[in-house]
Amino acid sequence: MLRNAFRLHRWGLIGYGVVLFVSTYIQAAAFMQVAGTTAASRAAFARSMTTLAGQLSYILPQPFRLDTLDGYVQWRAYGPLALVVMIWAIAAAADAARGDEDKQLVDYWLAARVSRARLVASRLAAFGLASLVAAVLGGLGYVAGAARYESVSLGPVAGKTLSLWLFVLTLFALCFLVAQLIGSIRGAQAAGAGVVVVLYLLDVLGRTNHSFDGLSWLSPFKWYDATTVLAPGGNLDGAGIALSVAAIAVAGVLSALAFARRDVRGTPFALPHREVAAKDVAPSPLLAWPVARLLYRQRWIVAVWALITAAMAVYMVAIAHSVVDSAINLPGMREFLTHSSGGDPYRGFIAAFWFGIAQLLLAGFAVHLVSGWAADDTEGILTSVLSMPVHRWAVIGERAATALVGTVVVVAVGSLTAAAMAAAVGTTLDAAAVFRASWLLIPFALTYAAVGAAASADFPRAAVGVLGVLAFLSFLVYELAPLLNWPAWAANLSVQQLYGTPFLTGVFWNGLWAMVAVVVVGFGVATLLMQRREVGQ
What we know:
Radius of gyration: 23 Å
Number of domains: 2
Structural class: mainly alpha
Number of helices: 27
Order of helices and strands: HHHHHHHHHHHHHHHHHHHHHHHHHHH
Distance between the termini: 22 Å
Largest sheet: none
Helix content: over 70%
Strand content: under 5%
């Protein structure tokens, strides 16, 4: 059982293992270039990065010893990895709890007299092994990158690897428990994403307002951040490690109890069945429309990501005044926040940082859309659709249109919420600039969806891993290109670079046409691949 369950995580392991290795390697290798080689330059670098950290607390934890290679990598590499691996944990947990049932693998295992408790234990153990390998690859990437400059102590690396492994396994266990309560893989993904985002926001509240520090200890993100063992003078937080182990054990036991209580493809707390008189009622005519049909199946993904986007919009606008007031007197900060924002630094902060976080959210939304398309193939839904009959090119066209509609909904909810919240706190956003920055988010998200459509049309089981890797590399290129003075063509490999900063500087037209080209080519390639592939294989 364990070997078979481990094989089901192989593509996620490969994809996210590469992500962790590349991230830690590049950040370690780039430290000398960005921080300098002298003690004075490193001290100046640490002061500037510490100031920047206060503005990026919604993404990165508080820094510790940024004048050292170890401290910088702990903050700049391991910090954002929490956001990367949480997507893997959500998708893997939903697939392990509900995907295997939809594929009827659980039926076969139960028929072979494998106990339900053993099934749960094997899935937790299999993902634990896969995530351990990925976490170790992250540590090896750091060692390889840092070895170019200085020797590395393996003890702190092992401690940080342990905290990362327990973190991702904790998220998996919690999402696996949530998936026991939801009757479909898409609902499980949406519910898991909602729970994880709430836990993340609890940690972010503690970072930005110390009065919430006690509440933030309810979050695994806090447990992970508390371990600073990689930096000189840091520590391996025993409370965080113990809470992670306890959460994994409790979630595993509750998952086993919930699975024992419910039927396969059912829920443990289903309402008693009542006899209902049959009525000859025609279904909604909207469900006869292809796009509406697929959008209905993915309604929970769209709804949850719209709510997540709205929640983040409220949070980002709410912290604008406190962040700006604390940073406005820093050199260059006033000019940055007031440039092209009508002299209002609060408007500049909202424009620069809200639309930046919106890009992260839309990348995650695209990954979950692609996960649903891949699930249609493995669950047999695609086979049923094609038997209607429906042309294969129409399936890709339906996916493209559904991605467009879903993206419009999520973007509209986020932008309208941000504008309304800004007005509530006394900051008026320019309507034309908000509209310009918002509609450009649509081709931005569709770029990821198009790449995912091509991957899911050829190899659905690896689609989520491939798209996750590409999304991460895109963000990494966007971050490193200006720091390392990469040429323009290399920087333009990032979708974030192609999006530009439309709220402040207008439309980057070359980037827009490049994104449109990727969307057209991606869905075109997906159509060709769908025509030649054997469905279900």
